[in-house]
Amino acid sequence: xxxxxxxxVCGSIVPDPLQTLEPASSPTxxxxxxxxxxxxxxxxxASHALYxxxxxxxxxxxxxxxxxxxxxxxxxxxxxxxxxxKVPFELVALDGPSGGFxxxxxxxxxxxxxxxxxxxxxxxxxxxxGGWESASRGAGATMQMLGERLGIVDQFQxxxxxxxxxxxxxxxxxxxxxxxxxxxxxxxxxxxxxWATGNLPEPKNNPQVGMANMRLMMPALQKxxxxxxxxxxxxxxxxSLPRQMRQTRIVKDQSAxxxxxxxxxxxxx
Length: 269
Prior knowledge:
Elements: E1 6-10, E2 13-15, E3 23-26, E4 29-32, E5 40-42, H1 44-59, E6 64-71, H2 73-83, E7 90-95, H3 104-116, E8 126-131, H4 142-149, E9 155-164, E10 170-176, E11 180-186, E12 191-195, H5 207-222, E13 225-226, H6 256-268
Parallel strand pairs: 1-6, 1-8, 6-7, 7-13, 8-12, 9-12
Antiparallel strand pairs: 2-5, 3-4, 9-10, 10-11
Helix pairs in contact: 2-5, 3-4
């Protein structure tokens, strides 16, 4: 039994991981130094979710993918110029902060409102994808809160694989403790999946896909709704980078056992 899914992928933009990040204070609270000047990419966790969604839509006739993204509009436009060439999707843009100093519940509320406003949304066929974690909003709670606001009971986190069965049921491979996986089975949509790494490589750039996406993407960016995350009750006493510690000694003619004992003693201290 083939079901045409409506797949909603939630993903924001983050600073390029090759950049050096330095916390700084701003009038609105903690931020990153020169944040708007840093090159940005689509969150790596959300990227996996997007590629898996596009693959599912490709193999399930009639399915469609939306990417709901909350971030500064100017930065979103820069990133989407490259992401648009990867896979087909329709963008739902929200103009707001994308940094890690935001409250997960506020982000989930903004995403839920945007998803429910999608024209023609059929919640009985809806699958919500997103990153199990995030390179900026690493609270690990945003997707769960989003699912609760959308009334989705069947939620799966740490997903590495999704298979649609002949009867329409979903077979999901989830990560669990101890480096193991468990196989879960869901009757079907609606469901929420927080993706880990998935199984698919990054798609190659396709200019034709990019041109098709851009026809709808630019109008979506122009009418992006401004979102202000309240963050009520949220305060930061201090924000700083982890300190680097390096203690080096050059010792000759010492056995491996002696080196191991010395390392163990150093760790205990």
